[in-house]
């Protein structure tokens, strides 16, 4: 009985042993696996405790993702995070031996999605392949310290989500590249685009000499940025155009070129209420060497912002805002059109005033003035006289002739009124007056019903209307006679009514 108990105690270490080369610290809950001693792969089922914190020490060479030398990890998807100690974050730490090489692959870290913090220390990383850290998923902190990065591509961090994790003791959301030499001395385009939720970024002593204006374009939640101890003499002016959450900036050990255009960062942090930390010492021009950036800016670049941060143009001490400038530009054509409209209205009013009498006569029915009355009566008297001297003519001849001449008298009176006696002759009137024969006579001959040609000739001679020449001249008389006769059938007798005589009597006009 005692012998079996002793044998059981001796066999316990072999039953509950950890993987070869791995030791466990019960105080810090840290597993340390020495790459010089281990035999890959590291199998989860061989760990006696949950590998909440795992340190790979003295790594030199590759962490394989597949056979023949790997994979490095097997079965870690079975980790039970409910057994983790809440005093410590789930962490994964790679420490290389004396800055030796580290070769990692896209599938090297599969099944390590339970990790919250990643640290790679003192490793000369030959390459960061596409999505090399994607198996980590969401992490609270990602740090590369020491060593170097020989090759980095735009999608190296694709699939990695660095964000403050509320379940962590200290939510960080940080990416730290510190004391690590970036061999290319710059970042590939879009390398930080995939870590959209990062809030803190430290780029300290990584040997970069330039950054492009879109470096932080896809990091809208970035609140704390440190760019220190790099050979950056200036920063592009649009570097923080999309960093609307920025609150803290730290610039230490940068060889600033002190010109007003290069020191845009000074008014930027003031206008955006950003806390700025750093030594800020000018390295050039030589005359300003070792001068504080703030002092140089205050002495050479500080001007009172007349527009107080608003878009506009400064003329002397006056700010013409962009909105006002657009208003002025639009006002010019509006005022011009207004003036033109007023001029046109004034011209129209003057024209109407000049032609007011003419317009009134066109709208209203004109009344026959005294001169027209006299002229009409004179024509009527001629008609009556003609009737008396031509008794041998038929009754119908007298009826038609008298009515015809009275209509001519009335129409001629109206025409004289409409045309105003003192107006010059129109062109068409002049053409009428050039005719050799008086059209009145020919028309009259056609209208009057008579078989006696000599009677018609006497009739025409009797009514040549010579009195008209005393009013406007013979030429106007003939022209008006022709115009009246052309439109005679459409002109009513407005001042008299023809009354037929009873049998055996005379016909005549009543007024």
From TrEMBL:
GO MF terms held by the record: signaling receptor activity
Disordered, as annotated region: 420-453
Pfam name, any one: LRR_8
Highest taxon of the lineage: Eukaryota
Location (main, coarse): membrane
Membrane topology: Single-pass membrane protein
Cell compartments where the protein resides: Membrane
Extent of the signal sequence: 1-17
InterPro entries cross-referenced by the UniProt entry: Leu-rich_rpt, LRR_dom_sf
Protein keywords: Membrane, Signal, Transmembrane, Transmembrane helix
Residues passing through the membrane, by range: 325-352
Biological process, per Gene Ontology: signal transduction
Protein name: Uncharacterized protein
């Amino acid at each position: 009985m005692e012998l079996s108990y002793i044998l059981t105690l001796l066999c316990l270490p072999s039953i509950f042993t950890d993987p070869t080369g791995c030791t466990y610290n019960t105080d810090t809950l840290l597993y340390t696996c020495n790459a010089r001693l281990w035999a890959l792969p590291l199998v989860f089922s061989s760990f006696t405790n949950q590998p909440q914190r795992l340190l790979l020490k003295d790594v030199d060479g590759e962490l394989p993702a597949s056979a023949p030398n790997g994979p490095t990890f097997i079965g870690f998807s079975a980790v039970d995070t409910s057994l983790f100690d809440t005093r410590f974050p789930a962490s994964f730490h790679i420490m290389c031996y004396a800055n030796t090489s580290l070769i990692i692959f896209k599938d090297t870290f599969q099944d390590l999605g339970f990790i919250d913090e990643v640290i790679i220390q003192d490793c000369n990383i030959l390459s960061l392949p596409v999505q090399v850290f994607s198996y980590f998923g969401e992490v609270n902190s990602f740090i590369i310290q020491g060593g170097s990065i020989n090759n980095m591509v735009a999608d190296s961090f694709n699939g990695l989500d660095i964000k403050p994790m509320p379940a962590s003791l200290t939510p960080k959301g940080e990416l730290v590249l510190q004391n690590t030499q970036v061999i290319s001395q710059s970042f590939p385009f879009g390398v930080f685009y995939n870590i959209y939720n990062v809030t803190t970024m430290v780029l300290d002593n990584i040997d970069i000499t330039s950054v492009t204006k879109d470096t932080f374009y896809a990091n809208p939640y970035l609140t704390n940025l440190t760019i220190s101890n790099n050979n950056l003499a200036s920063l592009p002016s649009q570097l923080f155009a999309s960093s609307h959450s920025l609150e803290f900036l730290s610039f230490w050990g940068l060889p600033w070129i002190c010109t007003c255009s290069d020191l845009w960062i000074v008014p930027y942090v003031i206008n955006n209420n950003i806390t700025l930390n750093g030594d800020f010492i000018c390295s050039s021009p030589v005359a300003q060497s070792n001068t504080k950036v703030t002092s140089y800016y205050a002495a050479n670049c500080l001007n009172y912002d007349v527009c107080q941060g608003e878009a506009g143009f400064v003329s002397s001490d006056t700010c013409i805002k962009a909105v006002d400038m657009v208003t002025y530009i639009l006002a010019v054509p509006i005022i011009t059109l207004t003036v033109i409209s007023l001029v046109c209205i004034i011209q129209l009013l003057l024209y109407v005033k000049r032609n007011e009498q003419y317009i009134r006569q066109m709208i209203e029915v004109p009344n026959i003035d005294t001169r027209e009355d006299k002229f009409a009566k004179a024509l009527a008297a001629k008609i009556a006289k003609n009737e008396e001297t031509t008794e041998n003519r038929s009754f119908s001849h007298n009826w038609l002739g008298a009515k015809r001449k009275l209509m001519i008298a009335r129409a001629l009176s109206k025409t004289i009124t409409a045309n105003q006696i003192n107006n010059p002759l129109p062109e068409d009137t002049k053409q009428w007056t050039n005719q050799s024969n008086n059209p009145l006579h020919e028309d009259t001959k056609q209208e009057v019903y008579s078989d006696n040609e000599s009677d018609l000739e006497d009739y025409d001679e009797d009514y040549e209307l010579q009195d008209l020449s005393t009013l406007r001249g013979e030429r106007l008389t003939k022209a008006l006679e022709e115009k009246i006769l052309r439109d005679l059938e459409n002109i009513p007798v407005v001042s008299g009514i023809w009354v037929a005589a009873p049998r055996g009597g005379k016909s005549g006009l009543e007024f």
